[in-house]
């Protein structure tokens, strides 16, 4: 019995000793910063290698501005908003953050217009679809860093086996009916288990709405029109592709990962976006390409995008603004998007030569070129955060056969109280 | 017990202090926020009982509450009984008891994020390991995560898988505390295993059993991380339970006032149920 | 005797079947973590890797600042567990063996904090942490979660079942309150202290949401934060994630095996005592 007590107290003593030692080492290590040195906290998330590219750029910036350092805080995407909100409302706003849509936090963001000589000239440097992502009233609350485009990946081996040709130019894009036939043929005549993997995402889903000439919000952005006939037809088509088992319903209803279906060669096509290029380049051991998405009454993609934003409560606003303008300059932006396989937000970087899959990037760029501003306006609508969850839910209800498409979309419109 | 009156307070002090500052205080803030409209960024605006009115008249809330209750009512007894059963088996004189204990405890050592992602992968209808193994013996694929009812069953199975080892260890500690002389006396009387279990083991374990029931009840009512990475709350919200619902309202929709009110309601529900359990068991002494 | 043997066999059969159920997902993770990027998602799946590769482990170690995170995690786990054991055992003892004004209220209060989903309180918790100057410090991860209600409750329920006579006897021998606690209560509570150690180590090792908001200096990251960073908006970096999951499991198994022994000693101690 006694022995145990001694053992216990010895172990405790050791803990305390250990903790005392490490405490010292901690406090000395954080004392290293001099008076004029500024460290900018950047909340960051990565899907591919863009984090490393960003690190290189910040290192270069630090070389030119030795008093500015960066603390890049890697954060899982799901907890990005949690971390930002907690810090902003707790009175410790970060200096910079990479985000995907400013809607959730726009109140807290730094307006860049006081730092710009000519606001309009600055905005004009960017492509049309990128501007609404950072312009709020007469404020510019961040810089668009890259745009994403939805598009269609296909497995060349499966299509050869089935003897199906994919559109080679913008002249011969499929219409919806031809697209469905192509999917049916490739499923029947190749080794593919599934014809099409379609991302579980309201934004990817909405591509069909725009292709059919519909939209989510009205042109003036004041009301919901997702229950009009163009949009409902899109949902009917989407349901039909599921009913014909061309798209496995396990994705939208069971959380199956569409990326793994495609990269393991089980799905002949993947309806997704340009951000997959790096990962497919590294992980897919078959020939693949990117082709044009089919057209309904028109061709359309959806432009998404990322922004880097500064915060109002930052203690180093000048440094933040200076870095943001540096990061959005043509040269730096080109480096960032090229090495990360992203599409540029800058009009003067529209034609870049990518080291990886340059041809495929051109198809994505073309998808964007034919896309109107409408999708971007819809997706930047301040009501979108609550609407998009309802889109997912109601589409799922339709796919599982609970309700009819028209009913589902009417119900959605009835359930939303629009603000503003 | 006769003692100077300040002694118990001195023993309580360190724990109370840390707890009061880091949990008690924020909880009071939380109560205040539940009466405000707040997006987590600009300053909160007092709006009285509006949040509660909004919540209690929302059919989605009532659906979610029902769902959460069904899940808890199913998962608690299954977990407690399996944990007790395992603990009982593993404190008998058997070989490799330590080995088996380690195996049953293994899942407890894996984080919920990894457990959820891993089982999501294993349970996939078209590409999952289990349906693949079933296909080898010509069994049709099971819609594990695809159908609302099956998805709930899957969540329950995975919850038990992940947590049974934790409660088993508490039971083992309790069983170790039962004096072997009681069993020896029973052996002399020629009592069977079953008699020994119901006449000695079970009565002696009552305080620990109550502990396990209360702990598991509270824990499962708050199930969050595991489900988020296993089903994401789907399909069509069929596995979205209370805390995920609250978290979505707060951090994803930016309605922190409503989120705080939801937390307060959850707190009241659980406090009432725990008090009832407490009264039934006479202050945990049984 | 034959009856006995039969039931022994039955027990082993049950245990083995259950073990397979418990074990196979873990083994699947282990086996998958040794596969290459293309084999990981191949169809039909390979049960064992065709080519064993440690690439995932290498890239996990390289991408994440593994050594640093490991040190942080070990440090947090050890210190926080020591703190938890001391303060929880003291409180649990006070609540089990003293009758005093407000004891029930305090107990209920402790218990009720278990019922608050901390996910909903993160913003006020962050404010408190920052006000006290513990934000972005390793002590900010260690101290706040140490006062675990579960631990207090666990210890209290266990000490309740210890006989009062032992305490009375010690006091007769002239022991003061602290000596009673150290020399009677602690040794008799060995099994439950071992249990709480196992739990606390595990809680701290896997703590995710609290370090996420309490720390923004990447030098102070823990392993669990690093694992979660493999999950992006569009994609999960499966290979390194699985490798990291395997690596973080190993120390837990060692701790469990080590402290399990104290359970067994617990029996022997009780045996001697009677």
Automatic annotation (TrEMBL), chain A:
The keyword Endoplasmic reticulum does not apply. Belongs to the bacterial solute-binding protein 1 family. InterPro entries: SBP (IPR006059). One of its GO terms (cellular component) is ATP-binding cassette (ABC) transporter complex, substrate-binding subunit-containing. Residues 1-22 form the signal peptide. Pfam families: SBP_bac_8. It comes from the Bacteria. GO terms for biological process: maltodextrin transmembrane transport; maltose transport. Keywords: Signal, Transport. One of its GO terms (molecular function) is maltose binding. CDD domains: PBP2_TMBP_like (cd13585). The keyword Oxidoreductase does not apply. This is Carbohydrate ABC transporter substrate-binding protein, CUT1 family. It comes from Gracilibacillus orientalis.
Automatic annotation (TrEMBL), chain B:
One of its GO terms (biological process) is transmembrane transport. The keyword Secreted does not apply. It comes from Gracilibacillus orientalis. Pfam families: BPD_transp_1. The chain crosses the membrane at residues 12-35, 69-91, 103-122, 153-175, 208-236, 256-276. This is Carbohydrate ABC transporter membrane protein 1, CUT1 family. CDD domains: TM_PBP2. The keyword Transmembrane helix applies. It is a multi-pass membrane protein. Its main location: membrane. It is found in: Cell membrane. InterPro entries: ABC_transporter_permease, MetI-like, MetI-like_sf. SUPFAM superfamilies: MetI-like. Residues 65-277 form the ABC transmembrane type-1 domain.
Automatic annotation (TrEMBL), chain C:
The keyword Ribosomal protein does not apply. InterPro entries: MetI-like, MetI-like_sf. Keywords: Cell membrane, Membrane, Transmembrane, Transmembrane helix, Transport. It comes from the Bacteria. One of its GO terms (cellular component) is plasma membrane. Coiled coil: none annotated. Residues 70-259 form the ABC transmembrane type-1 domain. Belongs to the binding-protein-dependent transport system permease family. This is Carbohydrate ABC transporter membrane protein 2, CUT1 family.
